[in-house]
């Protein structure tokens, strides 16, 4: 019996040992499952955090790329010209530009050579498969190429050929100007004499022709100055009148219907996108008229807006602030070109209105010279050669003030 009890006790001990082992195994398994579950949760959390970091880095990279693209349009404290200069010698005018505006030179127009060398004539020469001709009332769309258009194209080719020497080895930003689609529509006439702006189909054809021709023009400029970073300025002095319904018919007795903001922005955006697709690093709009449509131009994707600083009002502060806050740049016209002689006062005084605007907007002073370039308010064809040089030099000095003493 004693032996039987020992056997039974041994069996109980074995059973207890097995039970403990099973319990320990179960506990180990539960702990392992718990560790695995926690590891899975941690791994999932790490993946989520990594995804969030990657998305944030992507957004930052996109924002930095956008800011970098906008910031690289021109150097700190840059000054530029708007369009026309006095004289008839393309090489001499270009040399003046590169001498006085080394940070942001532009391709000048020389209207004193004739109508084909002015803004509308040069822009007509750029239009693709949409001939224009000079009539007593101005430029008109016509069925075929005539003498006036051939001359305008010849003058443009001469200007570009002169760049080979005057811009040899240049590798910085270089600005070219062309009339925008709405100023062209407001100024050009249809074959029967009505304004092109009066015909929706004609305005579309002008914008499409400008986009295609501008692409070809950019290639021609790039072939002469292969190291330049091309910037396009769409001149739109008629845009406020187009949007407000103030463009008069040829008779002058009535006005044309206002164009909707959305349509205006769509056409401008299409031209800008075509220019970028052809190599332009930036596309902006210059409007030297009052009531610049900042919201429309922002919607159109303008990288910069050129204005006559003297025409800006406090009522436009919010619109300007929103545009700049979204990454837009400004070219401030600080020297009036309305009078027969330029008023070249103290350089600091010339930029006081720009600095005052910046202070009202509440942006950091050190950003001013980066975001804002300076220029004459409009073209300088009405001045003598020495006055034009003095104006450009004054602008260059004013640009430095925005960097060295912005407050």
UniProtKB/TrEMBL annotation:
<protein>
    <submittedName>
        <fullName>Methionine synthase</fullName>
    </submittedName>
</protein>
<feature type="domain" description="Cobalamin-independent methionine synthase MetE C-terminal/archaeal">
    <location>
        <begin position="82"/>
        <end position="398"/>
    </location>
</feature>
<feature type="compositionally biased region" description="Basic and acidic residues">
    <location>
        <begin position="17"/>
        <end position="65"/>
    </location>
</feature>
<dbReference type="InterPro" id="IPR002629">
    <property type="entry name" value="Met_Synth_C/arc"/>
</dbReference>
<dbReference type="InterPro" id="IPR038071">
    <property type="entry name" value="UROD/MetE-like_sf"/>
</dbReference>
<feature type="region of interest" description="Disordered">
    <location>
        <begin position="1"/>
        <end position="75"/>
    </location>
</feature>
<dbReference type="Pfam" id="PF01717">
    <property type="entry name" value="Meth_synt_2"/>
</dbReference>
């Amino acid at each position: 019996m004693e032996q039987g009890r020992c056997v039974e006790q041994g069996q109980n001990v074995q059973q207890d040992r097995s039970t403990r082992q099973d319990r320990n195994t179960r506990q180990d398994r539960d702990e392992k499952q718990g560790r695995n579950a926690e590891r899975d949760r941690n791994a999932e959390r790490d993946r989520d955090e990594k995804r969030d970091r990657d998305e944030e880095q992507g957004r930052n990279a996109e924002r930095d790329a956008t800011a970098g693209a906008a910031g690289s349009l021109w150097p700190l404290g840059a000054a530029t010209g708007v369009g026309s200069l006095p004289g008839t010698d393309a090489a001499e005018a270009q040399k003046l530009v590169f001498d006085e505006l080394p940070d942001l030179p532009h391709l000048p127009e020389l209207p004193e050579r004739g109508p084909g060398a002015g803004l509308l004539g040069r822009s007509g020469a750029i239009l693709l498969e949409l001939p224009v001709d000079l009539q007593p009332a101005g430029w008109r769309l016509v069925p075929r190429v005539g003498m006036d258009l051939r001359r305008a194209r010849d003058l443009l080719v001469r200007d570009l050929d002169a760049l080979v020497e005057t811009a040899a080895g240049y590798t910085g930003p270089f600005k070219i100007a062309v009339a925008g689609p709405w100023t062209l529509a407001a100024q050009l006439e249809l074959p029967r004499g009505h304004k092109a702006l009066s015909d929706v189909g004609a305005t579309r054809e002008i914008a499409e022709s400008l986009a295609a021709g501008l692409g070809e023009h950019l290639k021609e400029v790039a072939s002469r100055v292969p190291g330049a970073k091309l910037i396009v300025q769409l001149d739109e002095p008629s845009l406020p009148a187009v949007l407000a319904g103030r463009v008069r018919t040829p008779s002058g007795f009535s006005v044309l219907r206002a164009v909707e903001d959305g349509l205006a922005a769509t056409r401008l955006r299409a031209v800008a996108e075509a220019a970028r697709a052809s190599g332009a690093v930036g596309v902006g709009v210059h409007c030297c008229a009052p009531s610049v449509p900042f919201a429309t131009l922002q919607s159109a994707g303008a990288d910069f807006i050129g204005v006559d600083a003297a025409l800006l009002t406090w009522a436009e502060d919010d619109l300007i602030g929103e545009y700049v806050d979204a990454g837009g740049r400004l070219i401030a016209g600080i020297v009036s070109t309305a009078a027969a002689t330029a008023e070249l006062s103290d350089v600091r005084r010339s930029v006081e209105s720009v600095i005052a605007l910046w202070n009202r907007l509440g942006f950091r002073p050190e950003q001013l010279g980066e975001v804002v370039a300076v220029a004459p308010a409009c073209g300088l064809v009405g001045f003598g050669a020495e006055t034009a040089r003095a104006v450009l030099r004054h602008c260059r000095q004013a640009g430095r003030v925005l960097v060295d003493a912005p407050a």
